[in-house]
Specification:
The protein is 41% helix and 34% strand. It is an alpha/beta fold. The chain has a single domain, classed as Transcription Regulator spoIIAA. It has a five-stranded mixed β-sheet with strand order 1-2-3-4-5. Strand 3, helix 2 and strand 4 form a beta-alpha-beta unit. The radius of gyration is 13 Å and the shape is globular.
Length: 110
């Protein structure tokens, strides 16, 4: 997994490329928590180029969402492919996260 971090106004965008799995989930968590500690409060995780998320990847997203909410922030997801959307629905995580079809839609709704 690779990820690229950018800013759009006051929203921190994290683009995840590849797979979010046990071997790399901690890198994502560490970087997002650093940004949270430095004052960022709005996060958009963009999965446009992500093919697979395992259970540990889902766990890190839940953990990040909780920590961000505790600091008064919000985390949203965008661009889930059909398989990932089904995964979030089957695990009921679609009720925890605000999931937008596109990045632009997610940014507009913040």
């Amino acid at each position: 997994m690779n990820f690229e971090i950018s800013q759009h106004n006051d929203v921190t965008i994290v683009e995840v490329t590849g797979q979010l799995i046990v071997a790399n989930r901690q890198d994502l968590k560490d970087d997002v928590l650093k940004l949270l500690d430095s004052g960022s409060r709005k996060f958009l995780i963009d999965f446009r180029d992500t093919a697979y998320i395992d259970s540990s990847g889902l766990g890190v997203l839940v953990s990040l969402s909780k920590k961000i909410r505790e600091k008064g922030g919000e985390m949203r997801l965008s661009n889930l492919n059909e398989d990932l959307r089904t995964l979030f629905e089957l695990t009921k995580l679609d009720t925890l996260f605000h999931i937008a079809d596109t990045r632009d839609q997610a940014l507009k709704d913040f």
